[in-house]
Amino acid sequence: MAGGRVYPSNNDTTDGVPNNLSVLLQNQRLHPLFIPGSSPSPSPSFLGTRSMVSFEDSLKTNRPKRSIFKMFDEQENGYDEYLDERFHQPEKKRRLTVDQIQFLEKSFEVDNKLEPERKIQLAKDLGLQPRQVAIWFQNRRARWKTKQLEKDYDTLLAKYNSLKADYDDLLKEKDKLKEEVLQLTDKLQTKENEQRNSEFSDVKPLLLQEPSQKPIVVSMAGRKQEDIDSDNIPQYYSDEFHSSLLEAADSSYPFEPDQSDLSQDEEDSLHPPASSSNFGFPVEDHPIWSWTY
DNA sequence: TTGTGTTTTATTGCCTCC
DNA sequence: GGAGGCAATAAAACACAA
């Protein structure tokens, strides 16, 4: 295997097969009060028939192959005996016992990284190969990372939901305010229209009367100067009558709007320039016509 | 019992660090 | 270049419904 790992044999040899094998064959259970590191030679009772990696499997892989053969080469008792014993009862992948897992979990809580010394010690304490301990920590770190990611995801999701709720509330508030502005604008418009209408309705009846009535006052508003000039207007109205009309018109003007309440445009519409309207009654320039029948 | 999904143990290959 | 970590993956063990 390119870049394949060469696994150290010294550590494995420390708790090597002879030890593990004897432990394995003992098939003891963990003492419930067993505390890691409490004894210089802790009971290897974690090991059961289910706690050992299959040596048959080990021989199939690159990693244990190097140590298994080397280790047995170094031992007085050859491995033929061992192979006979083991390979006729092939061990498959075994799960760790509950006690072993609890032990490892506690150790993981203390520190999720595994220094070589601790690995050796744990392996000894648990009656496992250091490699198994290392693998367990590796897998445990992977599980922890996955859990952590799930936690982070949940946290982010909760934050997102909270922010979204706030955002939705703000949107509703915004729509509500928008609606309120529309209503108020509408009201204001209506009020202005009513105001304008009332101004005209108060002024017009006084200025515009039926022809049968006397005197008839014709508003000159909107009439061009040339029209006025070209009219065949009787010139016999008296100054006295003229004055009385002016008085009537002035007194009938319903109100003088508060200048401060109106914009210039509104003012202009309510009080058109004297040159274009007779409301200001610059009488000399725009005489009020009257007929007496 | 069996099919299927999940969990656990172990391997592989790549990477970084010393 | 060796040691060890990690991601991806294989495969065994296990859980469980039908």
From TrEMBL:
UniProt xrefs under Pfam families: HALZ (PF02183), Homeodomain (PF00046)
CDD domains: homeodomain
Domain of life: Eukaryota
Subcellular location: Nucleus
Keyword annotations from UniProtKB, A to Z: Coiled coil, DNA-binding, Homeobox, Nucleus, Transcription, Transcription regulation
Protein family (similarity comment): Belongs to the HD-ZIP homeobox family. Class I subfamily.
Full protein name: Homeobox-leucine zipper protein
